[in-house]
Amino acid sequence: MEFKILSHAGLLVKNKSGKSLICDPWLVGSSYWRSWWNYPPVSKELINSLQPDFIYLTHIHWDHFHGDSLKKFRPNIPIIVPKGNYTRMKDDLFYLGYNNIIELKHGERLQIDDHFSITSYQFWMFLDSALLIECDGVKLLNLNDSKHMGLTLKQIVRKHQPIDFVFRSHSSANERLSYEIVDEPGAPVDDLERYIKEFAQTARATRAKYAIPFASNHCHLHKDSFHFNQYIQHPLLVEDYFKQHQIQSPQVKVMVSGDSWSSASGFTISDKDWFTNRTTLLADYLQQQSESLEKFYLQENRAEIDKQVVVEYFEKFSATLPFFVRRYFKNVHFTYVLSAGNTTKYIYHININQGRVVELPPDTPLDHTNYPIQIHTTAFIFLRGIEFKIFSHMCIGKRVFYKVTAKQKKYMEALNLVFNAYEYDLLPIRRLFTWRSVESWSMRWREVILYMQLAKDKLVYGKLDIDKYLK
After folding, report:
1. In terms of residue numbers, what domain contains 239?
2. Shared domain check, 350 and 259
3. What's the CA gap between 161 and 212, in Å, rounded?
4. What is the CATH number of the domain that holds 358?
5. What is the pLDDT of residues 92-104, one digit of tens each?
6. Please, which of 36, 109, 197, 270 could form a disulfide with 31 given CB 3.0 to 4.6 Å?
7. What does pTM read for this prediction?
């Protein structure tokens, strides 16, 4: 068998008969409104060589579920997705024109070919999944972005040990770095080293032979997010962490797009260093993509919003919230500050409890006494969040910036959780009690126990002790 790293989170696995599977093929262009780009870029030769028999998509985030990349493949190709409580992955694939969708339940195995099978393992309330691939006697655990731990990770390890390769993310893909605590300037908003630490802990818990830093090989090129490149935890930092902590098992291997391993010849890894001189290489990459970026800047600058669209969205959103959630937000207002070009074009002052939207003049002085929760992004992105029901994607792309007071930060974090619940069909609450949802969660009972254990840690000790669930 052979596997090859394709991209940020793209993985190709091929058996000795030539049957092949691709996971999460983001191969072309950018993601999250020109913010995320594959780093290193994927060669055209590699893209053109791909003729997969199956595709597996771990979850719906655009750096994994990438429409433009999927269009490279035939409409009838079997696309496999996790079967969770909601149908959006399947629905969106049908919308894109794909008609051969296979849903796998938690722990369900699919035989692809002789001596070639996959098993899907779901995790997290907002559906993510890992994939255990067995191919010609070699076992690969593609954890990707999923944060399996405790009983859920033990289920995988016990059933499939020994595992040869484990792949996992190792850098931030959330909104924490996008916060500015205005009344506590310089206050830390994230612990960057913890991502690498958790990578190492998880890799060791799987008892795999090799650990591949994965699903974090990207960079930021948009002018609004380029500065976030300094915070990306790249694979050399993972390798250094293993050396500093004398972790010899599993053995960490830095692999980027085009690198491979086969049963016959072992590792084939390019000698090009993409990380030591990353600043210069990023400047070159930015120059190469300047035309595409400039066209997009012009598109963003032309964005126009009809207030009625905003009113209707938040009225509908508020109506799905249970009374205790609306009560939590009763006296809280969120101020969306939306730019087009270099100027503020729209300001919407929103009460989630009532679903009430008030439009303020663009030149309104935004002091943090009267407006303690400000969400700064572009009119273009805000409108896309409404049109495609993807507010939960906005923060991932590092194109939205939160200016909040320390006291009000918890409400912004809570709103982002509620957006996720709304977009992942956990709201209205009655959707939790559909047969599909009950079946999914009953199969994932270990995860439910894990959440109860984490809740106990928070109540008793005042913090979440993740370390003990990764031993």
Report:
1. 2-291
2. no
3. 17
4. 3.30.1050.10
5. 999 999 999 999 9
6. 36
7. 0.97
